[in-house]
Each structure stands twice: as structure tokens, then as C-alpha cells.
């Protein structure tokens, strides 16, 4: 008996929608990263991008537990001297909600070529509307993590 190895030509990709309203950021990000990798499929192969397309809506209404709204800090650096920029999670959720969710998911994906390829299948929107209705995405219930 041999171990099954999926080929990239044989991957079947589905579209899923995750509603992030009143759900902790880490739970949304971990579910999205797992689906982007394809770990929920029985044909999961670590070195092949066998994941699905993920649409996250209501990113501006994601919940942060504890005192993270004031304590969590996001850093950017322009690569120039003195180019460090700091923003709190409160600023990020008000002005850049998509970037906050994208960063959380990207941090949970593999680093390197394969992770960048998986990250391209993620679409994040601040409100409930998205332009991917033609793909007929299935809704994932965050309470159970299933469609």
C-alpha cells in the first residue's frame, strides 16, 4: 500500500465565505488558514497547494478579546532610518480592517513560495458585500466550523 500524493493538476477548489461578525480574530484566521492550506480535505498533501478559495466578510466587525484593542500593536518599517510606524489594533480596525485580518491569516500560512501561492486565494472585505457571487460560494458557520 502506498501513500496518496495529490498532483497540482488534480486539485478541485471550492469557494467558501466566512462571516467574521462578532467572532474572535484568531478563530477566523485559523479556520481560514486551515482551509487555504487544504487540511480539511482527505487528499491533503503538504507540498501541494490543494486548498480552497476563502472570502472573509465583515472584517470591520471582528472581535478582539481582552484588552487587545489598546495593547496590541502592529509595526511597519519603510526600511529607511527612523521609518518605524506603530499602530494599535483600535486604529487598524477603524481604518484598515482588511489588512488586520489579512495579516492574521498570513502569519498562520507556511513561509515561502507555497505560502505566498496560498495567500493569493484569500479575499477580505470590510462589509457584507463581495463581488464573488458568480462562483457560488458556500457559507461556513463559525459556530461549528462547517459549511
Question: Your description of this structure?
Answer:
- The protein is α/β, with parallel strands linked by helices and 147 residues long.
- The chain is 28% helix and 18% strand.
- The chain is built from five helices and six strands.
- The strands form two sheets. Strands 5-2-1-6 form a four-stranded parallel sheet, covered by helices on one side. It has a two-stranded antiparallel ribbon with strand order 3-4.
- Strand 1, helix 1 and strand 2 form a beta-alpha-beta unit.
- Helix 1 packs across helix 4 and helix 3 crosses helix 4.
- The longest helix has 13 residues.
- The mean pLDDT is 94.
- Give the number of DSSP strands: 6
- Spatial strand sequence of the major β-sheet: 5-2-1-6
Which regions are unreliable across 5 or more consecutive residues at pLDDT < 50? none
Query: What summary fits the major beta sheet?
Result: 4 strands, parallel
Distance from first to last alpha carbon: 32 Å
In N-to-C order, the SSE pattern is EHEHEEHHHEE
